[in-house]
Amino acid sequence: MADRYSKFVDYFVICGLNPSCNLEPDELAGDNFDRSPMERSFKSRVLAHFPDSVPWNPFDRDAISMMCLPHGMRFITQKQKADPYFHAFLITREDGSRYYGFSFTFFEEVIEADICNDLYALQGIYLAEMSQGRSGMKAAALDGAHNSRSLPRHFRLSVHQDELSGSGKYYYDREKDTLFAPKSIALICQTPFARAAREFLVALQKSVMKDLNDHLCIEKLIFPILHEVSIPHPGQSLTWKLPESLPALRLHYPDPACELPLLDFPIREVIELLGTENFLQLFTCLLLENQVLLYSKELYRLMLVAECATAVLFPFMWQHVYVPIVPASLLHFLDAPVPFLMGLHGTHKSQQQAFGECNLCVVYVDKGRVDLPEEIPSFPHQKQLIHEINSILSQYGIQGSLDKNLNERSPAHGRHRRRKPSWNRDAVLQNSDTLQRVQALAAKSGVKTGLEHLCLSDWDPDGSYVKDLKINSAIREVFFNQFIHMFSPYEHFVIQPNQDLDSWLSNRESVQNFDKATFLSDQPLQHFPFMSRFLETQMFTSLIDSKILKSYDQQDDLNVALFDARIRALRDTQEDGLTHRTSYENCTTVEETEELLMRRIQSSEEILCLAAPPLEECKSFQGPCTFFPLPDPEVLSRGAFSITIRKEKGVKRKEEGSGEGVKRREKRRAPPPDSSRPRSMSIKDMSPAVLAQNNWKFVEQLLKECKSRTKRLLVEKLGMEAVELGHGADQSLIGMEENTLIAGLCDLVERIWSHGRQNKQGKSALWSHLLSFQELADPIQGVDPTYLTPALAWVLLRRRLDQLTAEAGDYSGETGTWGRGNTGRSPSAPPTPRSTSRAEGRISFDRRSRGQSPEPSVLRKLPISVTFDMRNVQSMEEIKTPIGYARAWIRLALEKKLLSRHFRELLSNQDLLRGSYKRYAFLRCDDEREQFLYHLLTLNAVDFFCFTNTFHNTVIPYQVIIIPTRKMSASTTTANVWVRIAGTLGETKPIQVPRGSNQMFFQHKNLGILSTLSIGHDDSGMSPNWMVEHVIVRNEVTGHTYKFPCGRWLGRNVDDGSIERLLVGELMPLAANDANIVESCRGPPSRPRSPSVSRRSTVGQLQNMLSDAVNSLVKHFHKAEKERGNLTILLCGDGGLVPSLEQVLGFGFKSSRFFSRNLYLWDYLVRVQAFYITNVKQNKAEGKRPTNPEHYRIIKSFCLLVDRIGKASSTLGKDDRFQLFIVLSVRDHLLSCFLDPLAEAPPTSQMFEEYCFLRDPELREFLQKLLNTLHEFNMVVEGSLTKGIASPSYNCTVMRPPPSPRRKP
Fold first, then answer.
1. Cα torsion at 582, 586, 587, 592 (round to 10°)?
2. How far apart are CA 239 and CA 602, in angstroms?
3. Across the strands, what pairs with 57?
4. 478 Cβ neighbours under 8 A, 6+ residues apart
5. Is 998 helix (H, G, I), strand (E, B) or coil?
6. Contact partners, residue 298, CB within 8 Å, separation at least 6
7. β-strands 321-327, 620-623 pairing
8. Residue 1205 in 3-state DSSP?
9. How many other CB atoms are found less than 10 A from the CB of residue 1210?
10. pLDDT for position 188
11. What is the DSSP letter of 649?
């Protein structure tokens, strides 16, 4: 293992054309026989590699050959540009470990006559086929020399056309043209020292192919880098002086204990290409584990952007598929339904269009453009972070977004741009053959010439490399600093397991290791969208797992160790380690890390490489060579000969493989134990069988993720409902986290529908499938009329007429259609004012007298179909994108508990499924598809409001049914009836109910979960009195039905004289039959609504009932604000505080009277008010002042409150006014203060029995203490309950009694 982590280079590789083999088409390039042979890819081969093998890195011939020449063998002629280029690549093994490669590609003349003849023969076959019309290629793309006799007559192009099209360069004339083939020399390494590898390969090719040398020994040039050059220990730097004209190699290795990991790719160039804002958007997409595709015509840029983007993720690591360079022939890899970071090298516009329609992050590196997927939140403090990065760049003189081509070609003009040669002394001496010979002779004799130092500065003559290292360090420190401040208290939220390591590892996926709910509750509101999604990513989970493994004394993760060390340093400057600053904090460690970097570079140990094979065994060439020769494998495979390393300065170096440094390197690179990183795709074998196997793995992974997501969502949702039911379960789910989990489920569904799709159609594969299904199921709705031809229009119209004819008659709830009696109108659409009573008898707007008995109200069943919910989603104006429609449809189906059923209906069309998806797609795997639908079916066990609570601005149709009493004398009214509905998201204005009907539709902006309904009338007509049993309201989109019990009269001369009732709603189960709901509401409510009606309850029962109501409120306010339920239900619903107080205060009330109307509790409050007003006036007349000012202010507040309620609304009855009194006094914490003045008033003894709560001192004290426990909570009550009465209008109290010790819920 010491050799593995100490050697700089594992292999030296040469790839290219093997003259001894015939031309073979590149299988990975696909079927490209419709192209000219000069545009086809032929199979490249590894010509040689040294050494033969190393134990820790077995040589993968196919993968390395493919990555060295990603396009295979593509021949060119002298008419095409043949500039050499450098690129880096990465190969991931099956176990997740990685190794790096660095390739320098140049072109050599093909002198083998057989190769030239074969290529020319292929071109003749291609042209013959084209002349016979068997190819679909356009004539403009044909490669024809304008005067060549080899071309058919109709393929000859004029000189002008050929120059304009540029197609002549792809025609090979054997007599006139010179043929060239690419060749690659590459280094395979464990550590990505990109700069050193590039300088070595460029200099090596120049020395062999361009420099004049009488005795060129290629083995001597390659031998030191294979057997002598090694990487430094952590925190050290080495400068290796290579023989001949090769440059010095400067290798530096950061100390993992205090510095960020090695990055030898310049971030500066990435920002110059993309710009700071686009780079930050790419960074955000990687953090949220989106699918990211890099696109560039330069191979080097793909690896550059990928490595720099993943480097700034530290301390987090990319855990998913990572293939920085994917050849254009493997474009189908984009169908992988998992997060990935891939780089695509290509020039065809068809490829750009294909992935441009996918819902992924596409980075056009050459254009400096980033196309983001839908619904990507912003990174916290994004603007401040961009400003800090730009300020760092400006310190080094970098401004704007420059387009720097690392292969030294100007993309704007396409011309070769050569660097201006450097004529300084070091450059001249370095290229001097005489100086090198003198140094070699002196080395053999052991004499120091003193000339060695002359070439020590050639590794960075202009200081650009050190400058890039400084910029890398500063920018990475800025990103690292943001993570430190964002997650500084994260250790306090890690849930340490209470089981052994093996048990924890086996149950790791089902165990919650981080308290996300509490952590998110401390985040600023503007950071919630990003933070809630990031906590669900695999990279964050892996960091928490590494933190927990450390508690088991397992191998310490150096990333986590450095992260924790920086957090501890930050805490030393803060008073409280549990709090983190919400404002932006600039990085303060840039100068410190730059000082460490410069200290390491300046103290670099310089080593002169003198090791070389015996000269008599080397092959000498006369340079320059016309081709790159193959070294002697026996010479390079013998290992190191007697080596004497001369150290020019610095301390003596430790032996390789010993010391703590090697252990640190090994720990940095070795994969963590039981790593959760998924295995990456192997691209060395792309046979159909291997591709099918990889896709089966994707299917299994998708199914596993589906099971995990549905299980977590189900368990945590059940936990929250258990808390609300008082079962004492721990609640770990809040509204924002639930929304995040559902968003993750939407992403999973989208990835499932994207897997194995035949053609990319729009950004949402699911919505494209739904539209195709809608077109088949409902042709008129599914087809855009602008695209209808006359023939297609007639076919669709004929099918629609046949469908309507077959479905004529009664309305069918299963199909969602109406018969003749309803003119085809959907029940979700409100009737038009002009509709006649014949067409819309149930919801007519005619002016029939209410004295006539209306037809029985019917709540018809909503259609249960995919297309019905699609039409509801398509009518939402706030959604603009296919992704938005798909997610809204999923949320709607999930809230209606129809998601699994809808998907089963959608997938039942086998013809559509086979035409849209390939055989290996997830949706065509029968067993896995059934398991997927089963997992979704389990979500029906809980209630979701993910559609209602998300789309606040959507206009929703509602249906209202008023159910009066069955008694004929009270079932109708001549008055004009109105309703007003309130919910969690808003409240309507009074809506007039059509005359002659107890059923109506209306549309309004989403009201949320309905809570209250006010119903009343204007008391007009001959018979206005009306007995209402229930009111039913249904959301026509979600299907949620609310029942509002009433059981009271509306009339001035009946009951308590109220012509307006405030009703509290009850949500009915979705499984309930709509017809049964209406039938069950035709009778009176289960309990009488008037608090003045005497009840046979004992004191103990009333105390328990009131205690439960208070405990429910205490639990409500002890939750986080976003976790709380509906306060209106807890106050005014069944078993709420207000009904409980009504019964408690009405206990012992003498309501019944002979020969007169019954008394109500509001009559009692009015009499108490009159008594105190009279008493105050009498005291003022007598000149008496109140002896207890506080008592006087309480009485004054009571009198003002009763007066405000009496004047608030003339339509309220006595019971509703008493309820309003309870609501307001509880809201303002005055009810407990009012009890003593009420008990002291003479009307109390006159109107209550002695055993009542007001007259019994012990019961009154119990009531006061219980109500005092609510004084610490700020109650925000709906406006529908308060009638607009504010506290300052009547509250005159200054001091309040101190709250008594709070009872435990």
1. -140
2. 11
3. 54
4. 385, 388, 389, 392, 587, 590
5. coil
6. 85, 87, 345, 365, 366, 405, 406, 407
7. unpaired
8. helix
9. 8
10. 92
11. S
Both structure tokens of 612: 């070389």
Residue 1062 dihedral angles phi and psi, to the nearest 5°: -100, 115
Distance in angstroms (rounded) separating the CA atoms of residues 224 and 1246 = 112
**What distances in angstroms separate CA 1279 from CA 247, 333, 880, 1082, 1110, one per listed residue?**
80, 57, 34, 30, 22
Are 547 and 487 a contacting pair, CB within 8 Å? no
Half-sphere exposure of 52 (CA within 13 A, CB side): 7
> Per residue in 765-780, pLDDT tens?
899 899 989 888 865 5
Which pTM does this prediction carry? 0.68
Give the containing element (helix H, strand E) for 1198: helix 1189-1208
- pLDDT, tens digit, for every residue of 314-350? 999 998 888 898 865 566 667 777 888 988 887 544 4
Query: Any bridge partners for residue 1234, and if so which?
Result: none
Q: Kindly report the backbone phi and psi dihedral angles of residue 238, in degrees, each rounded to the nearest multiple of 5, phi listed first.
A: -130, 140
b (16+ CB within 10 A) / e for 187-218: bbbbbbbbbbbbbbbbbbbebbbebebeebbb
Calculate the CA dihedral of residues 629, 635, 636, 638 and round it to 10 degrees: 170
Q: Are 42 and 25 in contact (CB under 8 A)?
A: yes
Alpha-carbon distance of 648 to 664, in angstroms, equals 27
Please report the pLDDT score of residue 187 as a whole number. Answer: 93
For 100-109, 495-504, 531-540, which range has the lowest pLDDT when averaged over its residues?
495-504
Q: In this structure, what token pair is assigned to residue 524?
A: 């600023």
List Cα–Cα distances, 1207 to 207, 1057, 1062, 1176, 1221, in angstroms.
Answer: 101, 15, 17, 21, 13
Q: What is the mean pLDDT of residues 214-236?
A: 81
Which DSSP state fits 840?
-
Residue 824 gets the label, from left (phi > 0), alpha (psi -120 to 50) or beta, of: left
Q: Is 644 exposed, middle or buried (0-12, 13-18, 19+ CB in 10 A)?
A: exposed
Beta bridge partners of 1015: 979, 1061
Judge contact between 486 and 570, C-beta under 8 A: no
Residues in Cβ contact with 995 at an 8 Å cutoff, skipping those fewer than 6 apart: 846, 847, 848, 849, 850, 976
The length of the chain is 1305
- Please state the three-class secondary structure of 446-502 as a single string: CCCCCCHHHHCCCCCCCCHHHHHHHHHHHHHHHHHHHHHHHCCCHHHHECCCCCCHH
Quickly tell me which residue has 């012990």 as its tokens: 1258
The answer to whether the beta carbons of residues 144 and 157 sit under 8 Å apart is: yes
Proportion of the chain in helix, strand, coil states, percent, rounded to 5 = 45, 15, 45
Task: Please list, in sequence order, all residues whose beta carbon lies within 8 angstroms of the beta carbon of residue 94, skipping any fewer than 6 positions away.
Answer: 679, 682
Query: DSSP character for 263?
Result: -
pLDDT of residue 358: 63
pLDDT at 648: 42
Given a cut of 80, whether residue 729 has pLDDT beyond it is no
User: Of the candidates 649, 88, 195, 104, which has an alpha carbon nearest to the alpha carbon of residue 466?
Assistant: 195
Closest CA to 187 of 89, 81, 42: 89
Q: Is the dihedral of CA 404, 410, 413, 419 positive or negative?
A: positive
632: DSSP letter: P
Helices (H), 813-898: 866-874, 882-895
Is the preceding peptide bond at 461 cis, omega within 30 degrees of 0?
A: no
The dihedral over CA atoms of 1142, 1145, 1146, 1148, expressed in degrees to the nearest 10, equals: 160
The token duo for 688 is 């159909």
Q: Which of 199, 193, 343, 368 minimizes the C-alpha distance to 265?
A: 193
| pLDDT mean over 266-276 | 92
The Cα 682–Cα 850 span in angstroms is 78
